[in-house]
Write a structure and sequence with these properties.
Cytochrome Bc1 Complex, Chain A, domain 1, 4 domains, alpha+beta, disordered N terminus
């Protein structure tokens, strides 16, 4: 791509436990099919339209039937690199104008490359639909490929590869080794991102030939979803797309057949920056359109979806062998793969994890799944499908993907119906058919330091893999930008379609608990979020992470339900439950079908009111938390953010790591956890937010049933130590062998209730909010130094951190530091132009609108307001307050709160590649070896 939860039942407090158990149902209820129209133009373009007048937005998606499998020989990564170039100039659009047409009016855009397709999507206010159709047609018909943008985007893709593959733990496992070991002939063997060598070998004429070969109307699918007039849409589609000619040559297609794997393959590799050993076992499966796909989807859900799934229950929870255990159902146009993956728990040998995965696969083959498991899996799939259809973009994506992958826009609905008919015998049959031991390909992915002289295996694309030959069509035209006089401007926007803000209804129970309800009846879904005042800011100075650990443990057992009971019951209802802590609060949330709201709320109430904090659950959660922190600390970007918070905020409330450190987590006792819980969870500090297919009357009934009996207890005083902001510093964390450097420039900011919040939010968006922001323009677009760059504003009940950040190749770290500093300073000394200011306001307003488009998004926004002490009236005034910000207020806020003179600089990476030039500018910088870093200490040592 250019830059790719919820909970439930206190019935137990009111009913006998046996009556409170969620019961499996018959086949999952049907999901209402997506209503769409379809037509095909004379030039072959397939057009699908999904009308929804309840939204003020429209989604435009253009999917091309070309992906990384179509990369020419010696040019792996080519389709993906081309995706980047599609955002550059066309005959009538200047470079990056797609961002002007989308982001700058409050919309968004992005793209992604898959093995089988490349897709481009935009969500914009509905009155900009015609402009986007014009733009999509222009880049299909007349893309300008010129040397400067070609070279720049190739550098950006290299940084993407370094960031996501080389620097990120397990990056090579998933993006390179998994596909390479899965195929011996099919070009699916090559990773989508490609390689540095292949990217360097690409020539500009190759790019032009690729566009002429694949970017044509008869190889594309256009989906428009949202608020539009159908007759007007048809007219615009004809106006802009019908005139694009269909080439008279055939589209080259991959016809390679992958031979069946009949002998197991096993490889062991040793990789740097690997915090915990991992194992991946994959099995070949048929194309997605195969009739067995429905049974495989159910099998996949039973094995790994949720905390009552087989892999989580056995490897993660019961035996504590793995930090995580997952599956990946990799379905394609052609032969796909089913993979099971375990990242081991600290101190656990990968051989034990591999044996455990194989046992679970054997159990799927040897024993039929239970009726309860089957019903639960179907309910989970239905809920997930409903969530995917909450937005215009989600509906459009469902149709487009079905058309490209399965050749049928109705495929998603057809497969859902097929899933409803899957039997236990079907699941066992496909497990026996596809998950055979002699068909397995296994990768053991081990830390480099564990090699002890052993030489790992080489995993590379096999020489027998057949890729398409690079062919240049005879009629490739070199498109050049039109002159100013000849350039056709995008059409003007139409009249604005007014958006409506969420309208909360609020009341209180007799015990003081606050209830907020937002009705949204378009889908049969409900999200319930219970938030309590408190959170990480209450962590004692010596115990960072205690509130996070306490929140995690809420769903790990109550007085009447075990952790397994909770997961099993909520997931049987088709839902999911999660608990978490933020800086200012803690939360438990669920999302279920609305007909399951009553039992779900009972579970939610039980979890919040009656946590058991059993010793074995504490130790299990502690071990998982430590493993998670260790993984994060091996990622240069994540680690840079953690160090920057400590460097900028010191011992103030938000300065420590929210999830804790390995040292602090080991020191947390049961009494500390109970104290953290008691300081947060009382009725008068709690708010229940319900959003979705529920009325205020029904919400009151649900709240009274589950929470009326909750009685207040004397809450202990939160132990908050008054902290101090440290002096600005320059800190280098040396991580030898890091694939990239994480760079953060951070300083103290302001609280959410500060009158300067809105001007500062706009200033932050000018600096680094979105693709068109100044940092991304300077670092990525102009110089190709990073995959992306941005900034963040953390503002809660207390002042948080303002930071500019990016990830770049190690030698470029000093240059990116200087750019971030210069742009932060410039905002305070130069007034933002009215034109730029309006576009950045639109970004904020658009982000707010999209955040409140789904049940979960609305609940999260309301819950955030509650714990930060923001009046809910701001849901209706947010847009007005952003709109009212003046240039002078932005400059004043930037001068006071973005001035880099008060900022600390943090760089995490391979220090030998950048520390000397950085030291020339900052002679007093401090270098700390990654192994010596202590995040629990302000001194970082």
């Amino acid at each position: 791509m250019r830059l790719s939860r919820a909970a439930l039942l206190l019935g137990a407090a009111l009913l006998p436990a046996t009556l409170a158990q969620a019961q499996p149902t018959a086949p999952a209820p049907a999901v209402k099919p997506i209503a769409f129209t379809e037509r095909t133009l004379a030039n072959g373009l397939r057009v699908y339209a999904i009308r929804d007048t309840s939204t003020p937005n429209v989604s435009v998606q253009m999917w091309y039937d070309v992906g990384s499998k179509d990369d020419p020989a010696g040019r792996s990564g080519f389709a993906h690199m081309f995706e980047h170039l599609m955002f550059k100039a066309t005959r009538n659009l200047v470079s990056e104008q797609m961002d002007r047409l989308t982001e700058d009016v409050g919309g968004n855009n992005n793209a992604s490359t898959n093995d089988d397709y490349t897709e481009y999507h935009e969500t914009i206010p509905a009155n900009h639909l015609q402009r986007l159709l014009f733009a999509e047609a222009d880049r299909m018909a007349s893309l300008v490929v010129e040397p400067k943008s070609f070279a720049s985007e190739r550098d950006v893709v290299k940084e993407e590869l370094r960031q996501n593959t080389n620097a990120r733990p397990y990056g090579k496992l998933f993006s390179q080794y998994f596909p390479a070991i899965s195929y011996t002939r099919h070009p699916y063997a090559r990773g989508t991102i490609g390689s540095i060598d292949n990217l360097d070998s690409a020539q500009i004429d190759d790019v032009r030939a690729f566009h002429a070969t694949f970017y044509r109307p008869d190889n594309a699918v256009l989906v428009v979803s949202g608020n539009f007039d159908p007759a007007q849409l048809n007219q615009w589609v004809d106006q802009y797309f019908a005139k694009i000619k269909r080439p008279d040559r055939p589209i080259p297609r991959v016809t390679t057949t992958e031979p069946p794997r009949t002998q197991a393959v096993s490889r062991t590799v040793y990789e740097a920056n690997t915090p915990l050993p991992a194992v991946l076992i994959s099995y070949p499966i048929p194309a997605d359109r195969d009739p067995d796909s429905a049974a495989l989807a159910v099998l996949n859900t039973i094995l790994s979806q949720g905390e009552s799934s087989r892999l989580y229950e056995s490897l993660v929870y019961r035996d504590q062998l793995a930090q995580s255990a997952e599956t990946y159902l990799d379905v394609k146009q052609g032969p796909g793969n089913f993979a099971v993956i375990a990242i081991m728990a600290g101190g656990k040998d990968v051989a034990i994890g591999e044996a455990a995965l194989r046992r679970e696969i054997a159990r799927m083959r040897d024993t039929a799944v239970s009726p309860a498991e089957l019903a639960k899996a179907k309910n989970q799939i239905v809920t997930a499908e409903l969530l995917g259809r909450e937005t215009a973009e989600g509906k459009g994506r469902t149709i487009a993907q079905a058309t490209i992958i399965d050749g049928d826009p109705h495929a998603a609905d057809r497969q859902l119906a097929a899933i409803g008919r899957v039997t236990a015998a079907d699941v066992q049959r496909v497990a026996r058919k596809y998950l055979q031991d002699n068909r397995a390909a296994t990768i053991r992915y081990l830390p480099a330091e564990s090699a002890n002289g052993a030489k790992g295996d080489t995993i590379a694309v096999a020489d027998s893999v057949i890729a398409q030959k690079l062919v240049t069509p005879p009629d490739v035209q070199i498109v050049t930008p039109a002159s100013v006089a000849d350039r056709i401007a995008p059409p003007a926007p139409a009249a604005t379609v007014q958006a409506s803000s969420p309208k909360p209804v609020e009341f209180a129970l007799a015990n003081g608990m606050r209830v907020v309800v937002v009705e949204k009846h378009d889908l049969p879904l409900i999200t319930a979020l219970l938030v309590g005042q408190g959170g990480g800011s209450n962590d004692p100075a010596t115990l960072p992470g205690v509130n996070s650990l306490a929140a995690t443990l809420l769903t790990k057992g109550t007085k009447t339900r075990s952790a397994t009971d909770i997961a099993q019951q909520i997931e049987t209802l088709g839902g999911a439950i999660s608990s978490d802590a933020s800086w200012d609060g803690a939360s438990v949330d669920i999302t279920v079908k609305s007909d399951q709201a009553a039992p779900a709320l009972g579970i939610l109430a039980d979890v919040a009111r009656n946590p058991a904090f059993q010793p074995d659950e504490i130790e299990r959660a502690r071990a998982q938390a430590i493993d998670g922190v260790q993984v994060a600390m091996k990622n240069p970007s994540q680690l840079a953010g953690l160090v920057a918070a400590r460097a900028a905020l010191g011992t103030t409330s938000y300065g420590h790591p929210l999830e804790g450190t390995p040292t602090s987590l080991k020191a947390i006792g049961a009494s500390d956890i109970r104290h953290a819980y008691a300081a947060t969870w009382t009725p008068k500090q709690a708010t229940l937010v319900m959003v979705g297919d529920v009325t205020p009357v029904r919400a009151r009934q649900l709240a009274e049933t589950s929470f009326a009996g909750w009685r207040a207890v004397a809450a202990p005083q939160a132990r908050v130590a008054a902290g101090n902001y440290p002096k600005p510093s320059v800190v280098v964390i040396d991580m030898p062998g890091a694939g990239q450097a994480g760079v953060v420039v951070a300083r103290p900011g302001l609280a959410r209730n500060d009158p300067r919040y809105y001007p500062t939010a706009v200033a932050n968006t000018v600096l680094g909010g979105g693709f068109s922001s100044r940092l991304n323009q300077e670092i990525r677009i102009k110089r190709g130094l990073a995959y992306g760059a941005g900034s963040s504003l953390q503002a809660g009940r207390q002042p948080g951190m303002i930071a500019g950040r990016t990830s770049t190749k190690n030698p470029s770290a000093p240059e990116t530091v200087s750019i971030i500093l210069a742009e932060m300073k410039r905002l305070g000394v130069e007034a933002v132009t009215p034109a730029e200011l309006e576009t950045r306001k639109a970004v904020l307003i658009g982000n707010f609108g999209r955040a409140t488009e789904t049940t979960g998004g609305i609940a999260g926004t309301v819950g955030g307001y509650v714990v930060q002490g923001v009046p809910l009236s701001e849901l209706g005034t947010y847009v007005d307050k952003v709109t009212a910000v003046e240039p002078s207020a932005v400059q004043a806020a930037a001068a006071a709160l973005l001035d880099p003179a008060a900022a600390s600089i943090v760089v995490v990476g391979d220090a030998k590649d950048f520390v000397d030039p950085l030291r020339k500018t900052y002679p007093r910088l401090e270098v700390i070896p990654a192994g010596a870093l202590k995040l629990e200490a302000q001194a970082l040592r």
